[in-house]
Amino acid sequence: MTRNTVVIGSGAFGTALAAVFAHEGEDAVTLLGRDAGLIAILQKTRRHQAALPGITLPQALAFTIDPSVLETADIVVLAVPAQAQRAAALYYGPYLNPDAVIVSAAKGIDRASGRLITDVLSEALPNHPAGALSGPGFAVDLAAGKPIAMVLAFANGERAKETATILSGRTFRLYASGDPVGVQIGGALKNVLAIACGIVEGADLGESARAALISRGLAEMSRLAVAMGGEPETVRGLSGLGDLVLTGTSRQSRNFRYGVALAEGNFESVNAALVEGVYSASVASELAASHGVEMPISSAVARVLEGKLGIPQALEELMSRPITTE
Prior knowledge:
Layout: E1 4-8, H1 12-22, E2 28-32, H2 36-45, E3 61-64, E4 75-78, H3 85-92, E5 101-104, H4 117-124, E6 130-134, H5 139-143, E7 148-153, H6 157-167, E8 172-177, H7 180-202, H8 207-227, H9 238-247, H10 254-263, H11 276-290, H12 296-305, H13 311-319
Parallel strand pairs: 1-2, 1-4, 2-3, 4-5, 5-6, 7-8
Antiparallel strand pairs: 6-7
């Protein structure tokens, strides 16, 4: 049985996901974008030089700007930034196959409402189950066919397993989860903590400081996930620890590079509009306050980003906190 998968969003990650889904050649895969010029180039050259330089996209991958392709889609992957997920869902919703399953590939929290993306999508598309895809995977590695493992979460664990099986392939393995809360908290907060790791790098605070930040940041993730109804084990998996180790140690990560630029006083060199952690930091801090959860690292990052706290002062504040047990 041939299934139809449509990936919405022709940026680096959306294009890479569409490419890895299409590599199997078993199901129909289409990349749906809104930039007619870019889509025409992709159709002609099978290259997205700006986002994925040097990579040839598979012949099995189709490209279109026509949303009517959604009318026969079994799985629709929303690979647009977190803050654009609601608008995309409302725009494309009228074209959806009534039985389509929705997968969000964004790693963030909706800033306008302070809600998780799957909750936003469930409100915008009430007749479609919404899941979250997250975990460690740079777009260029995905598109190049390098081995990647990520996690796909739906509230219905069986749906998660079925959808993960469809989307997985020879180089792309999806683990199924029934904890969309934990998966999304891990995906969103790792961006905030990756900015902190970048600050450590840019300020030359040392590898030991980064290791401590990753481990204590993971504890913050776990506390918030549990407070919001998730499982602590989830953030110790691919979406959380796995993704944080990747993005907190590599300059391929926009969030990490932004943190480095902040510490070096060169933050204008990175486009903040493309850095999900900038949006998630303040929302995470507000969620922590509303749930009575202590998140000193995330809170410090939020205040640094808002210009309310300098990096030396943030470091002093974190290091002078009362001694507690781990």
